[in-house]
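Form 7-S
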Amino acid sequence: MAISFSVLSSGSTGNATIVRNEDTTLLIDAGLSARRIDELLKEREMSGEEIDGILVTHEHSDHIKGLGAVARKYNLPIYANEKTWEAMNRSIGNIAEENRIVLQSDEVKDFGTLRVEPFEISHDAAEPVGYCFYDGDQKLGVATDLGYVSDKVMRAIEGSDVLVMESNHDIELLRMGRYPWNTKRRILGDLGHLSNESAGEALSELLTGDTKRAYLAHLSRDHNMMDLAKMTVRDTMEDRGCFFKDSEFKLCDTYYDRSTPWDELKK
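Output:
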């Protein structure tokens, strides 16, 4: 079995992604209620009993809302770096000591044949990370909640067969939107969220023969739309000399209210 994954939910109302291979199943974040996560897992014809552990990207509520409840319900280990543990301790309730596992931001960990490599990202959290997953020559990169794509992030996710990449907002819609200026400035800043244009710029540099698909994730419901995000990302890539057909490289949707179909990376 190859690496397969489903983005269960993506956006400011809650984030969770399931990644698995033949011997390991991991949940990235648990930013919805335990009940809702169970419902989304059921959509993918699986249950919480099949999960082997939870990886945490950072401590914001849309990534850890149901973390404690899910971990306690299924007796799951939680993996996060020390600063993230410190920042989220009060929010997630009691966790059994054996399930409180520190996975530092530069630490590589093997879960059976599934290798996990965290990497640091830029966001207004204690020590936020993205993750890359490997099984043999397969690679899945997950990078959301980042203000900009640093050289370190580029090196971490380059060569991914499939990417889950933040495309949070349209800059003009955000500037004209109802948020107070301080919030807009935070989102637009280096510790905020990635715009459609910035996602397109990053993808134009990352696109190689290895990369088959990119899922645009963490879209703002107030300042973005999936069709707009895909159009802007594609136009930005073409402006930078990156032309492609859907048969060669495809931009894919994520949703805040339902899961994406299973996507399997081919060997």
